[in-house]
Amino acid sequence: MAIPQHTIDQILDRTDIVDLIGQRVKLKKTGRTYSGCCPFHQEKSPSFHVYRDKQYFHCFGCQANGNAIRFLMDIDGRNFVDVMKDLSSRSGIELPKDNHDSNKIKYKREAAKPQPVAKQSERNIQNAAANSPQHSSTTVTSAIDHDPFAEFQMQEAVFYGNDPFAAFDQTTAQFEDIPQDGNLYDLLENIALYYEQQLPHSQTAQQYFKQRGLSAETIVYWRLGYAPEDWQHLEKAFPYDIEGLRQLGLIRTSDKGRDFDLLRDRVIFPIRDSKGRVVGFGGRALNDEIKPKYINSPDSEVFHKNQLLYGLYEGRKQKAQDWLMVEGYMDVIALQQYGVFGAVATLGTASNTDHLNILFKQNNRITVAFDGDAAGQKAARRTLEIALPLLNDGRELKFFVLPNDHDPDSLIRREGLESFQRMLQAAPLLSEFIFAHLTQNHNSTSPEGKSQVMGELKQLTELLPKHGSYRYLLQQYFREKLGYSRKWQPQVNNDASLSFSTKIDAEEYVVAILMSHPYLYIHFEPLRALIPHDQLLFKILNIFNIIFDDLPDDTELSQYYVLGACANYHHDLQHILMQTNISDYTSSPEQADKLAEDFSIKLQYQCLQQKLKSKKFTSIAEMRNLKQRIYEIDRKRSLTLIDE
C-alpha cells in the first residue's frame, strides 16, 4: 500500500505522542517535556523524553528516537503499514485503498485513428526522437545563434515533411496495439519533450531567451521550450491522450463547446517535483500586451502549486546550502546561471507555510527576497506573519530587500556575482528587519512612538511559538534598542577574556548564557541526561527544569528570578560571570540563539564521545544508536562557529 506523505503528516498531526507513549511508559511532566524510564533498554534513572510540541521522543541513554510511527514499529516489532492502519483508526483519517493513488494518475487512452503518414516519415520520426534536445545541446545552440529556418530547413524537409506536428503524430502503423491506460507522469514528460522540440521553430521565442541573457546550456538544463500558436497543437501531437490532457487542465472548452489549448504562443518552463518528474508547466507570453503575462498549469492529481517550489529539485541536485526565495522563474534561472544555487520561486501564488517549511527542511537558515517598493513591503509583512509561527528555536529568517526597479535577475546582471553575494550576505536578520519595519512609521524617540512600536511588536511576537526562546529574546532586543531598560550585565573584570579560551570551559560558558538569557534553556535541556551529576552545569540545569514553566515573561525579571533560584551557587556564579562577557556575543536575538545552539551541540558531542569510549552501553543496538547519534551531531557540529 502506497500512503501519500500528506496523509502521513495529517495522521501525525492528529496523534498526541504523549498520550500514545503514555499508554506504554509511565511518564512524568518535567519542565516542557515528559520523561520516564526508556522501554528500549534497562535503566533506573529516567533518560527517555517525549516532546509534545515537536511530536518526538528521544532517549539520551540508548539514543532511540523518532515519531509516533517509529515508536510503535520499534516497541511492537510491527511493519510500517500495520502501524499506519492503527494510527489511522485512532486519528479518524482514512488511508487510501490499495492502488487508489496509482489509479489517480491513470487515464483512458482513446482509440481514435489519425490519418496515416508515409513509411519513410515513420522512420524519420524515430530518428528525430532519438536526437531530441533533451539529449543534445547542439540543436538548441544552433537555434539560438542562427536563423532557425535556415539552420533546420533541411532537417524539417527530412524529418517532418510539411507537417510540423508529424514528429508527435502517433500513426496507426506505429501504434497498432494502443495501451488502454495512460500515465499522467509519462504524458507530462512527453509534452515537455514536445515543447522543447518546438523551440527551434520560433525565432521570437529564441530571441526572448537570448535577450534575457540565457545561454544555450541553461536553456537545455532547464528544459525550456515553446508552445505553438495553433489552438489545438496538443490534440494533434497527442491524439490518443485527450482525456489525460483534460485531467492536466492543458485543454479547455470554450463557451461554444470548442476545445482549445491553455498555453499558446508562449515560452514554456517545465515544473518538476522533488523527484525530478515534470508535473506542470509555466507559460510566459511573448507579447507584453497579452494578459495574463504568466499562466501556470492548473492543479491536478500530480500538480499542487501550494506544495511546490520552482527550482527546488535543481537546487538539491546541485547540493545548494543557502536557499533564497525569489518571485519568478527567470530569477531562479538567471541566478543559477551566474552560480547562485538554491534560489526557488513560488508557482504564481503567494508564499505560504508549506513553502517555508519545505525550505526549512533544506536548511534552518533561509532568505526571502522582496522588491523595495510599497507592494514589496506589503508582501514582506504578509510573509513575516506567515513565517513567525514556524520559527522554532534554531531557525533563522533573513529579508533581502532589493533596490527599486530591480529583481534578482536584473540585479545580478548589473552587479555581477561577487557584488550580488555581498549584498545577499548583508541582508538584515529578522530582528533587524522587524525593528526597521515597525519604527519607520512611528517616532521611536517619543514615549508615544515607543509605546506604539512595542504594541505592534507584541502582536507579532504572539505569533511566535509559545515554547521557543525567540519571542523573549526579541522583546529584550526591542526594549534595549528603544532605551526602555538598561541591559542587565554583571560586573566584569576589565581583563576578562573575550574569546572562548582555556581560562573557562564550555560548561561554564553555558552557565553564563543561562544567567543572561534564561529562555535559552530549551537548547540545553538534552544535556541533563549527559552531563556528569557532580558538575555545576548539571545542578543549574536541574534548577531550570523545575522553574522554567514559572519564569516571568519580562526578560529582566526572569534574569533576577533565576539568580534567586540559584542562590546556593552564588560564589561559583560570580566567578564565572566575572570571567565572561556574554553580551559581546549576543548583540541580536539570532546571535544569542545561535550561540546557545552551538554550545549545546558541542557539549552533546563531547559527552556522547566520552560515553562511547567508556564502553558503558548494554547492547550492540545501543552502541549502534550511540554511533548514529554521534554522526548526526557531528554533521551539525561541523557548521558551528565554536573552535574545538
Number of helices: 30
What overall form do the CA principal axes indicate?
A: globular
> Structural class, judged by helices and strands?
alpha+beta
Span of the ends, CA to CA: 48 Å
The total beta strand count reads 17
Mean pLDDT across residues? 80
Q: Helix share of residues?
A: 40-55%
* Physical arrangement of strands within the biggest beta sheet: 1-2-3-4-5
Estimated share of beta-strand residues = 5-15%
Task: Characterize the main sheet.
Answer: 5 strands, antiparallel
Radius of gyration, CA atoms, in whole angstroms: 30 Å
- Low-confidence segments, given as residue ranges, are 113-164, 169-176, 486-503, 640-644
| Quaternary structure | single chain
Give the helices and strands, then pairings:
Elements: H1 5-14, H2 17-22, E1 28-30, E2 33-36, E3 48-51, E4 56-59, E5 65-66, H3 68-76, H4 80-91, H5 100-104, E6 106-108, H6 119-130, H7 138-145, H8 148-151, H9 153-159, E7 181-183, H10 184-198, H11 203-211, H12 216-221, E8 225-227, H13 233-237, H14 242-247, E9 251-253, E10 259-261, E11 266-272, E12 278-285, E13 294-296, H15 312-317, E14 323-326, H16 329-338, E15 343-345, H17 353-362, E16 365-370, H18 374-387, E17 396-401, H19 408-415, H20 417-425, H21 430-439, H22 447-461, H23 470-481, H24 506-516, H25 521-524, H26 536-547, H27 555-565, H28 570-579, H29 589-614, H30 620-637
Parallel strand pairs: 14-15, 14-16, 16-17
Antiparallel strand pairs: 1-2, 2-3, 3-4, 4-5, 6-7, 8-11, 9-10, 11-12, 12-13
